[in-house]
Design goal:
The complex is a heterodimer of chains A (314) and B (176). Chain A is an alpha/beta fold. Chain A has 8 helices and 16 strands. Chain B has 6 helices and no strands. In chain B, helix 3 packs across helix 4. The longest helix of chain B has 52 residues. Chain B is elongated. The chains are: A alpha/beta (314), B mainly alpha (176). The interface between A and B is medium-sized, with 20 and 20 residues.
Chain lengths: 314, 176
């Protein structure tokens, strides 16, 4: 997927990495930048050694960026216009690439990006079983309680959601949970990493994925047509999302959702989410952090829960 | 008697050869406008695939090849093959390498292929609107080239054939 020159450099550098690679960052005319858990570093010009000194590092050229971008778009940039407008591409294997460059706007909205000058390749990691410890605390009377995962970026929110979905779908006897039908709305193709609609990640045997679909609309569609017992959705925050979540709860469907933030108070500052919490949409709030590496469960809070759907109040 | 027979046979051979050469040259004048039209058709298909289907290039190129005539179809089919093979190659690289290798069986001139070379540089590298603009521009240039090729054809196709026959006749007369 990378331009051959960059690929060779990074392949050499990968041997020197002290921890698993998290991000590969290419910026035009600036040093090749690698981020791994617990630190970051540049790639030196010779034989891929790592260096903290940007002046000794190999830079990514215009041609590298252009080539890499084209290769990632499978030679067809025009076919991914919606994704590029949203600032990201999903690669085979579920890795995601963030894009920056010059935005072409139309009436104040981004129409497309041209002269892409920054690429951030986020290596998707599937950590099977990372939710095993958490799941029992989200179950009440043999059913999943609606849960909001709160976490700052890069703290494993999506990875955790994916594993929760997988385990709920498969069933977790240890947690006293039988496998149930899960509907997943994956607007940014991040959770299931779909390629041509087929999940590239293990999201469980009873999971239906609605890929690249706007969250609010997707939730409604799932509830109407696929009769899920649980719906999962990443990064809610807009009023329309909140409305759809309430709709799901009224239909007796448990909701697994995530939101950006460091604490419940952070999240409650956003009007749509505050409304949801006040209405008792979620029975649990889970705060994730990086204090012991990404995906650390910092806190599980019981919230006063909406009594509908037969779930047990927190 | 034998000498006369030899002269007649030799004369016929010369006449046949020059006529054939003239016929070929004339035929090339006739085929070029047709091949330019085929290129236009292929680009029109490519444009539709890009504009309405947002079809990824390898597949779009294959449909373009299917719509083009046998002389220019390999340009698109082979570019698609090379792209599908992967290995860090961009669509521009792929098409340029095919153009560099030359299209055997086609009578297109360097200036015709130059249009495709210019297009190769931007192929697949930008948003839909931009691609459509570039494809339309390339087609316009091909239309202009085709008009000139048609004009040349009307002027030179018959001429080349006559020159073939007549030069053969003249040669035979001189040698007699």
């Amino acid at each position: 997927m990378l331009a051959p020159r960059v690929a060779a450099l990074i392949q050499a550098a990968a041997l020197h990495l002290p921890a698993p690679l998290e991000e590969i960052r290419l910026r035009e005319d600036r040093p090749l930048h690698l981020v791994y858990s617990g630190g970051d570093s540049f790639v030196a010009t010779c034989d891929g050694e790592l260096t903290p000194d940007p002046s000794r590092a190999a830079t990514a050229t215009h041609d590298d960026l252009l080539r890499t971008f084209q290769l990632m778009a499978q030679g067809s940039v025009y076919a991914w216009e919606d994704e590029i407008r949203g600032g990201f591409l999903t690669l085979q294997g579920g890795h995601r690439v963030g894009l920056a460059g010059r935005a072409v706007t139309d009436g104040g909205r981004i129409k497309t990006l041209k002269h892409v000058s920054s690429l951030n390749i986020r290596i998707a990691r599937e950590i099977l079983g990372c939710a095993t410890g958490l799941l029992p605390r989200l179950v009440g009377s043999g059913r999943l309680v609606s849960t909001l995962l709160i976490s700052p970026p890069q703290a494993g929110k999506t990875t955790m959601l994916r594993d929760l979905v997988r385990q709920v779908s498969r069933g977790a006897p240890m947690a006293g949970l039988r496998g149930c039908k899960v509907g997943l709305v994956d607007e940014r193709s991040e959770v299931a990493g779909c390629c041509a609609g087929v999940p590239q990640r293990d999201v469980g045997p009873r999971t239906d994925v609605l890929d690249a679909c706007p969250k609010a609309e997707g939730l409604m569609l799932l509830i109407r047509s696929l009769s899920p017992a649980v719906v999962a959705v990443d990064e809610i925050g807009r009023p329309a999302d909140a409305e759809a979540v309430m709709e799901a709860l009224h239909a007796g469907v448990a909701v697994l959702a995530t939101a950006h933030g460091h604490s419940l108070e952070d999240v409650a500052r956003r009007p749509a989410l505050a409304e949801l919490i006040r209405a008792g949409a979620f029975g649990r709030a889970v705060i994730l952090g990086r204090s012991r590496g990404p995906g650390t469960v910092e806190q599980v809070m019981d919230l006063p829960c909406y009594p509908g759907g037969g779930r047990v109040a927190g | 008697m034998a000498a006369l027979l030899g002269k007649v046979v030799g004369g016929l051979l010369i006449l046949g050869a020059t006529s054939y050469a003239g016929w070929q040259v004339g035929g090339n004048y006739a085929r070029r406008p047709a091949e330019l039209r085929d290129l236009q058709t292929a680009l029109a298909v490519l444009q539709t695939e890009v504009e309405y289907g947002a079809t990824p290039l390898p597949e779009a190129l294959r449909s373009a090849a299917a719509a083009a005539g046998p002389a220019v179809a390999p340009l698109f089919a082979r570019t698609a093959e090379r792209l599908a093979a992967g290995g860090g190659i961009t669509p521009g690289d792929a098409m340029r390498s095919i153009l560099d290798a030359g299209l055997e069986g086609a009578v297109l001139r360097p200036e015709d292929l130059e249009v495709m070379r210019a297009l190769a540089g931007v192929l697949g590298a930008s948003g839909r609107e931009d691609q459509v603009r570039h494809l339309a521009l390339a087609r316009e240039r091909l239309v202009a080239l085709a008009a000139r090729a048609a004009e040349e054809r009307s002027r030179y196709e018959k001429l080349a054939r006559y020159v073939g026959v007549l030069s053969g006749t003249a040669l035979v007369l001189i040698l007699l």
